[in-house]
Amino acid sequence: MASNDFVGLDIGTSTFKGIQVKGKTLISYYQSSAPGISLLSENPNDLKQISDSLRKFFEDAKFRTRNVVTSVPESQVFTRVISLPQMGEAEIASSVQNEAPQYVPMPLDQAVLDYEILGTSETQPGSVDVLLVAVPKALTQKYLALLQGAGLSPLSLETETIALSRSVVGDSSQPVMVASIGATTTDISIFSGGALRFTRSIATGGKALERVLAQTFNLEMGQAAEYIRTYGLEEKLEGKVMGAIKPVFDIIVEELKRSQAFFTSRSRRPISRLVLVGGTANLPGVLVYLAQALGVEVARGNPWETGISVPQNFPREYLEEFAPSFAVAAGLALKEI
Q1: Which of 168, 206, 286, 291 has the smallest C-beta neighbourhood within 10 Å, fewest atoms?
Q2: What's the rounded Cα separation, in Å, for the pair 240 and 245?
Q3: Quick one: 200-297 is in which CATH superfamily?
Q4: Tell me, what DSSP letter sits at residue 288?
Q5: Mean pLDDT (the chain, rounded)
Q6: If we measure between CA atoms, which residue out of 75, 76, 95 comes closest to residue 85?
Q7: Domains of the chain, residue spans
Q8: C-alpha 133: how far from its chain's center?
Q9: How far, CA to CA in Å, does 311 sit from each of 167, 169, 170, 229, 308?
Q10: CA-to-CA distance for 214 and 304, rounded, in angstroms?
């Protein structure tokens, strides 16, 4: 299939994002508000509302195709890097099946299991690292029904982390940590030697920041979101916004520190930089705050610099502003089918 025959579709709780490329050149993009309903809802009416919203999203976007590659929430996917003795591919396949039950927290007959050989282990000498991924079958069936209900043709489902490896990590030889701060979760991953080496997800995101600010100053959620977008982690407005959201944001910071320490202790290689994606990457003061907390370079993830070239007739300023939010959709668009 040609690379422009599908849309990379990021189905978020707060926004939908879609990107279509030809080769590695942007040919179409679109984003709009989502209905604010979790894809994990078991209510058929909720899921129908998401499907109807996706249908309208594609009508408004005017993409050239209804074929999509989309991602499943990292918090609902079991992803683990395991180390196995050096052996042939057939032996690895057999070993993964034998080892999976001790790692996957669900019966294997209820999961879609996949794996990828990453190469020589960076933490276990004489071993090979294998990425093990397990997705509940019920979740994949829900996604397929959701997409088909929107009149879309799903070609592939994958994890957000793998998509981000294409769009914002690049070919760095040094270990890179990526933090994807979404509305309800933060996904942390570490890449080294061109491969994913560590991943975890925590249930704290941008909505938690909005809630604590709204509660502290008796604001509506929309007002709280606007204050956060304006003042963030800077000392403006007498530092009142920063003071309110800092305890919640520091939950994310502590998880980043733990992930950094764990990887460095195993690999003996320091993390060179942190790449921030998701809407929170635009929070005023966030890059400086994280750089001081972690002692590494911190940058906004930008798929227009790392993965996709943008023709001159596109609104560069707009795309630069929202670059971290498009990172997952861009990585999905770059998938080879």
Answers
A1: 291
A2: 9
A3: ATPase, nucleotide binding domain (3.30.420.40)
A4: H
A5: 91
A6: 95
A7: 7-73+137-169+301-333, 76-134, 200-297
A8: 15
A9: 17, 22, 20, 29, 10
A10: 34
What length is written for the chain? 337
Query: Which residue is it, tokens 């599908």?
Result: 6
CA angle 191, 196, 199 (to 5 degrees): 95
- In the numeric block, the tokens 């074929």 are attached to 67
pLDDT score of 1 more than 70: no
CB distance 157 to 72 below 8 Å: yes
Which pairs count as long-range contacts for 34-39, CB under 8 Å and 24+ apart, including other chains? 37/13, 38/13, 38/184, 39/11, 39/13, 39/73, 39/142, 39/143, 39/146
List the structure tokens of 78.
């079991």
Q: For residue range 139-182, what is the model confidence (pLDDT) as tens digits? A: 999 999 999 999 999 999 988 988 999 999 977 778 999 999 98
**Under the phi-then-psi rule, with left for phi > 0, alpha for psi from -120 to 50, and beta for the rest, what region is 278?**
left
Of 3.90.25.10, 3.40.50.300, 1.10.150.750, 3.30.1490.300, the CATH number of 76-134 is 3.30.1490.300
Contact 168, 275 (CB under 8 A): yes
CA angle 135, 198, 10 (to 5 degrees): 50
| 99/103 Cα distance (integer angstroms) | 7
pLDDT for residue 33: 93
Token pair recorded at residue 229 = 């977008």
- Quick check: 224 and 218 in contact, CB under 8 A? no
Second-level CATH architecture of 7-73+137-169+301-333: 2-Layer Sandwich (3.30)
Q: Distance (Å, rounded) from C-alpha 215 to C-alpha 248?
A: 13
- Tokens 């560590």 -> residue: 198
DSSP, residue by residue, 103-157: H-SS-GGGEEEEEEEEEE-SSSTTEEEEEEEEEEHHHHHHHHHHHHHTT-EEEEE
Distance CA 210, CA 283 (A): 12
